[in-house]
Amino acid sequence: MNTELPRILVGVDFSHASRRAADEAQQLAAQMGAQIDLVHICPLPPAGAELSVPIDAGAMERARRELATVERELRDEGFAAKTHLGVGDPVAGLLDYIRRLQPALVVVGSHGHGAVLRLLMGSVAESLIRRAGVPVMVVPAASAA
Predict the structure, then answer these.
(1) What is the mean pLDDT of residues 91-110?
(2) pLDDT in tens, 59-85
(3) What is the reported pLDDT for 1?
(4) DSSP structure string for 96-125
(5) In Å, how far are 42, 80, 88, 103 from 4, measured between CA atoms?
(6) Sign of the C-alpha dihedral, residues 124, 129, 134, 140?
(7) All structural domains of the chain
(8) What is the rounded distance in angstroms from the CA atom of residue 36 to the CA atom of residue 6?
(9) Which of 5, 33, 56, 94 is 20 to 30 A from 81 in CA distance terms?
C-alpha cells in the first residue's frame, strides 16, 4: 500500500505572483492532504554572455535561504513541505522536477505580461500547460478589480 502523500509542485521565483501561487497551493494542499514541493530554477547567464561568466553563486545562496524560510513557515503551519533548487532554463528545469516528483498538480503564478511580450519571450506558465502532462493551475499576479 502506497502511503505517500499526493504532491503539489509550486514553481517559485520569489515574485508577488509566485507568492500568490504558493498561497493557493497551500489552500489546495490543506483540502487534499498533499505535500507541497517548492521548486526554484536559477537561470543560467544569458546567451551571448562570456563563457567565463559563472552561475551567480550569490543568487543561488539567496534562493536557498528564501526556500528554507518558506519551507519552515509551511512546516510550522502543519504542512508537509520540501524545497528543490535547480539551475538552467526555468521551463526545462520545472519539467524535469515534474518528471521526477510526479505531482498531482502544478501551481505557478502569472506575471500578467502582455501578449506581445509573451509572443517574443514565451511564458513559463503557457509552456508548462502545453508540456507538463499533469494539470497546471495558473494563479494571476493580481486579483481582478
Answers:
(1) 94
(2) 889 999 999 999 999 999 999 999 999
(3) 44
(4) HHHHHH--SEEEEEE----HHHHHHH--HH
(5) 28, 11, 29, 11
(6) positive
(7) 7-140 (3.40.50.620)
(8) 9
(9) 56
